[in-house]
Amino acid sequence: MLNSYILLGALQSFLHQRDVEVERLTADQMVPLMIDWFRLVPVDTLDRTSTADALVYRYGGWSEGCATGFRLSLLRRVTEPTAEGRNTDWYAGITLMFEPSRYAKLSPFDTASVDWKSIDAFLHAIEGSEAFKLLATATPMTALLESGGLR
């Protein structure tokens, strides 16, 4: 059975094999890395019961209590059916956090690889996005691995 820990472990293993230090990534390094993980580590090696596998690109302002930031994320979403016939979406990926005030004018954006006819078209959509153009080579305040699940 797949869960967020298995998916995150697969990402961590991939990053370790590539000798990648997440905290040193920029957006222009993160995107091809995540696309490689998506292409080279098929979902059937993670869990055979999964029904969908997609990349989700999103960005926008974020606030929790007194902490704020501008998040740029590329996450892998694997959908698994539950015993009750519903679906659970498991996520794992990389999020880069930037100083928020400089990017407050950018509207939140969210798209998934399933919305595009090919992964190359998805990559071009990411590279053409306003946030990526501004932040491709910018040094983030922090970079982190993210995982979780949604029913």
Spatial gap, N to C terminus: 15 Å
Structural class: alpha+beta
Principal-axis shape equals: globular
Helix content: 25-40%
Order of strands across the widest beta sheet? 4-1-2-3-5
Main sheet summary: 5 strands, antiparallel
- Return Rg in Å: 15 Å
| Number of spatially distinct domains | 1
Mean pLDDT: 89
Number of helices: 4
**Quantity of strands, as a count:** 5
Oligomer: single chain
Portion of residues in beta strands equals 35-45%
Given as residue ranges, the uncertain stretches (5+ residues, pLDDT < 50) are none
**Elements, N to C (H/E):** HHEEEEHHE
Polypeptide structure, described:
The protein is of the alpha+beta class. The chain has one domain (4-150). Helix content is 29%, strand content 35%. The protein has four helices and five strands; from the N terminus they run ααββββααβ. β1 and β2 form a beta hairpin. It is globular and about 45 Å long.
Layout of helices and strands:
Layout: H1 4-17, H2 27-40, E1 52-64, E2 67-81, E3 87-98, E4 109-112, H3 119-128, H4 130-135, E5 142-150
Antiparallel strand pairs: 1-2, 1-4, 2-3, 3-5
Concise synopsis of the structure shown:
This protein has helices spanning 4-17, 27-40, 119-128, 130-135; strands at residues 52-64, 67-81, 87-98, 109-112, 142-150. With 151 residues, the chain is an alpha+beta fold.
Key phrases:
151 residues; alpha+beta
